[in-house]
Design brief:
Distance between the termini: 76 Å
Order of helices and strands: HHHHHHHHHHHHHHHHH
Helix content: 55-70%
Largest sheet: none
CATH topology of the domain at 34-175: Hypothetical protein af1432
Strand content: under 5%
Number of helices: 17
CATH architecture of the domain at 34-175: Orthogonal Bundle
Radius of gyration: 21 Å
CATH superfamily of the domain at 34-175: Hypothetical protein af1432
């Protein structure tokens, strides 16, 4: 009798179109494994990502607003969940592989630094080899998770994670969809958070965006999703030219009014000092690194180990570490 995985793989021939990736056609894992009886290979990737430590840490990493006061601002984790949900919705409508799409979406930002893109810029300045979060995301799943063993994900998931920002000529359609969904998510939820923070009002948003996308966050997301579905009937996963233009206008507006806004970004000048201070301390004291990172230092050098350690920190842990290193502890005279 076929097991549940085999039944699902047969069903995928009916559910997934010719331009999607079948689980049974995966190019496999870095280290070959026996197939699971219940889950397809991409379902297993989803589970491995959700249960890993790097995924849990995303809840305490900045999306856009550094240390916001309020419970409803996005974090790197909620951003990841929104991207994954948008991508999976479109994948189903386009008859692509939903599980591969979700795995890429859930894993795409695992390598993000504390303090969002400010942290990424800081590490890129400090680390001699340069730092790019999408490359670090692949390193997380290949090298850092499970005490150095990695998650041993499928090739298609790994390449989707690596290429989610810049793309590659041989991307799967599922990977392309996640890259597009990333943009759909962040231009809308960053605007929503900026309105919540009082940095913007809905009336500030460009008229072209209102005209082509709508005047509310949920309406805009729905409009773009429908546009992508309607315009991806051929070989390319894409928005229409008019929606892509509106998306670019929206992004440029957010870049000027939110991403460079002194109220939203006023504290970011401190990020380089925090991460740079931690970096210098562990560079001089490698014996104080956790054991996993000492092994990396032995294998790949101290710079690589410190980069991995610092980039994996949450915002709060980075602040706590910096404080414990450089700020005198309070004490009492009795």
């Amino acid at each position: 009798m076929p097991n549940p995985r085999e039944n699902r793989e047969k069903l995928e021939h009916l559910l997934i179109c010719a331009r999607g990736v079948l689980a049974e056609s995966s190019r496999g894992r870095l280290v070959p494994e026996e197939q699971d009886e219940i889950r397809t290979c991409f379902q297993r990737d989803i589970d491995r990502i959700i249960h890993c430590k790097s995924f849990r840490r995303l809840k305490h990493k900045t999306q856009v607003f550094l240390q916001p006061e309020g419970d409803h601002y996005r974090t790197r984790l909620t951003h990841t969940l929104e991207v994954s949900r948008i991508a999976r919705t479109v994948a189903r409508a386009l008859s692509l592989n939903e599980d591969l799409t979700e795995a890429i979406g859930l894993g795409h930002d695992l390598g993000h630094t504390p303090f969002g893109h400010a942290g990424e810029r800081a590490l890129n300045e400090i680390y001699s080899c340069g730092f790019r979060h999408y490359e670090q995301s692949l390193r997380v799943v290949d090298r850092l998770e499970k005490s150095g063993a990695g998650l041993n994900l499928c090739f298609e998931t790994r390449m989707g994670i690596l290429n989610h920002t810049v793309g590659a000529a041989d991307d799967t359609n599922e990977a392309t969809l996640v890259r597009l969904s990333d943009r759909i998510a962040y231009i809308n939820h960053d605007a929503d958070d900026a309105i919540r923070a009082g940095i913007l009002t809905e009336n500030d948003i460009p008229a072209l965006v209102h005209e082509r996308m709508g005047t509310r966050n949920s309406v805009r997301i729905d409009s773009i999703i429908k546009d992508v579905i309607e315009n991806s009937a051929g070989d390319e996963i894409k928005m229409s030219a008019k929606m892509a233009e509106a998306s670019n206008v929206f992004y440029d507006f957010l870049y000027e009014r939110v991403y460079r806004n002194p109220k939203a970004k006023g504290e970011e000048s401190k990020v380089a000092n925090i991460l740079g201070g931690i970096w210098e301390y562990y560079l001089k004291n490698p014996q104080l690194l956790p054991e996993d990172f000492k092994r990396i230092a032995d294998d790949e050098g101290i710079d690589r180990a410190v980069c991995d350690y610092v980039s994996g920190m949450t915002d709060d842990y980075a602040i706590h570490t910096f404080t414990s290193i450089y700020i005198p502890a309070a004490w009492q005279i009795k």
